[in-house]
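Limitations
The structure tokens in this dataset are predictions for the assembled complex, not deposited experimental models. Users should treat interface geometry with appropriate caution, especially where small molecules or nucleic acid strands are included. An illustrative entry is reproduced here so readers can see what is and is not provided.
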Amino acid sequence: MKDMDKSFKKDTETEFPLREEMRPHQVTAPDGQVIDIDPLQDYFCQEPPKVHAKSYFKIVEDFYNWARAHSLWILGFGTGCGAIEMRPLMTPRFDAYRYGIQWRPTPRQANLLVISGYLSVKTLKRAIRAYEQMPAPKYVVGLGSCTINGGMYWDSYNTINKFDEFLPVDLYITGCMPRPEVLMAGVLELKKKIKEGRADGANRYVENFEWYKANQKRVIKNWNMPDYNW
Amino acid sequence: MSTATDLLERFGTNYRISEVNEQKADLTFFKVPKDQAVRLLRELRDDAGYTHLAFLTNIDYIERGIFTLNYMLHNYDTRHTLGMHVDLDRDNAEMESIHNMWAQAATYQRELREMYGIRFPGSPRLDDDFCLEGWDQIPPMRKEFDTAAFSLARFYSRDGRGTEDPREHMKQQLYPTHTDDAPEGGN
Amino acid sequence: MTFEWIQIPYALLTVFIILNYGMIMTAIMQKIGARVGGRYGIPVWQNYIDLVKNWALRTKITHGVMFYLGPVFRLTGGLGLILFVPTIYGSVMHQNFSYSGDLILALYFIFFGTLGMALGAGESGHPHSAIGVSRGLAQVTAAELPLALAVFSISLQYQTLNITEIVAAQQGSIFNWTLFTNPLAVIAAMFGFVGTMMRSPFDVVLAPQEIPIGPPTEYHSAYLALMQTNRVIFPIAKTIIYMNLFFGGATGWGAFAVKVFALYFVTVFIGVVHPRFRVEQSIRFFLKWGLPVGILAIMAV
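Predicted assembly:
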């Protein structure tokens, strides 16, 4: 790092204008009625998330955790090179369906978000939205060294370095790039954590909500969505 | 003398073509001044059969104070590729847009606008975000932008990161008893 | 036929048996599909785990009243189909609420779930849901045409709209089945059967690669669990109708299990070897091949 430029321009606190469709505007209905719209207020639910307690009875919670562990639905969301390592798990060679793992195309039905490689700032925004739309309890797995410390992109202007600053990570899988076997082993490890009730990322996210949001907004400069995407 | 060199000589009567470099049998580079570039591109496309714009990219020569735009054209009949270099002033980079000749050029120009800050007046959606959303620094691909320092300042680095020289490291791994005095086998 | 209170627990028992049978059978069918693809496939109890998991999710969000009612309507379609159709012929316990005009009601209930889903998915506001629903309605409508014609045909043949009587007319020998007495109607109805089972090649409604999962895009947790329940009940219920109308009904649970499995397997068999049809292709397919056969069936009677 000896070639680092000391005269580097520090982060200027510039305000980013909202995109045009996100600014408050007026819409004329077909019958001539004029409606004021503030998209950020009207289109989204503003309610903050809350911590969800476990079941009252331990045995019920254990049963639920067992079911959750054996029915992991992965969001079909791929970033970076790891996305191509995830696909073989569906094929006859690895066949993750044996373990109750499925891929769901929509975040509403998924429980597991696999960040499969480097995460650019633009994608981070989408990843956060997808994560927040998933129903709790939800789990996050960081795949590959890029999510841990930036990997070979540690000095890139556009990829984040520490993924656990932005979303609560339950499990990291090291490697660059990990092979599908390793991903499989990681998911099985996650199942153990879920069964023991230690994978409680959704509640951790809510408890440290301010910290996570501050980190996210520090990196994502054009924040044009509500604080929590329901 | 290849047909491409012939072609460039023929155009040389009307255009100030310089630095012709025939790299391979099917790849030739040359340079034209900025004010003649788009006119020559149009002529190459319409008359000489270079109908495909393979890519449009930019090289940052910070020590010479110029940007060099690189228009890559391909001729499907002769399977020949022409690379056209155009020098721009680095501090006030502006170039005529070619989005009305090749529609895909608009995307390249958007990218160049975002990554280098080159302006292409008239190009559609030029100032919209392309890859970077909410970018608040100088364009990141300009060489004066220190990307490592920026990454440290904004993304923080995780402790415990080390670097190894690959050559030394692999030597240690494979031949732990190896000393530099020993002759290197095979080389 | 008179109503007695004991029919209610009996009917619930029927639903319970069908639910469990459906859970395991769909899993086995998925396993067969997986084996065709060279995979090992899911465990047979996977459907139960998924159901528990979906009930156990902690956050649920809603998009409005119809969003709640969508899955409820869908499940009503499946349950209603079971409750008003005699499941086992000659059994007092599993006769359910069958009555003299139940064939008409059954035809209505086949469509009811899709309509309810259209309302619920529309309320969710997701564009993929709307696309999926409009495709689904178009395709189901086209696929129902041959079925409706086949039903007209056999109601002409047997001179009744009561499913029990139709089943009764088919008893005795395998050659009394509608399959042999009116083969054209059966062929026409099988067009409708394959078309409405939401399996490949007629599953463009769900099309996970193109419009992520279609109508249920926004559904999650308990809503999804309801729809999953319906997804195992409804095909069975539909298969029961087909079994009763065309394949001689079932006189016991054993015959029931074998016949439903065999009928359901027809769609799986077609599904694993055929790629997906686009909507206009499938509609054209039904109108071109299904409809003439249905008309022929009526004329033959």
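Some entries come with short summary sentences. For this one: The mean pLDDT of chain B is 86.
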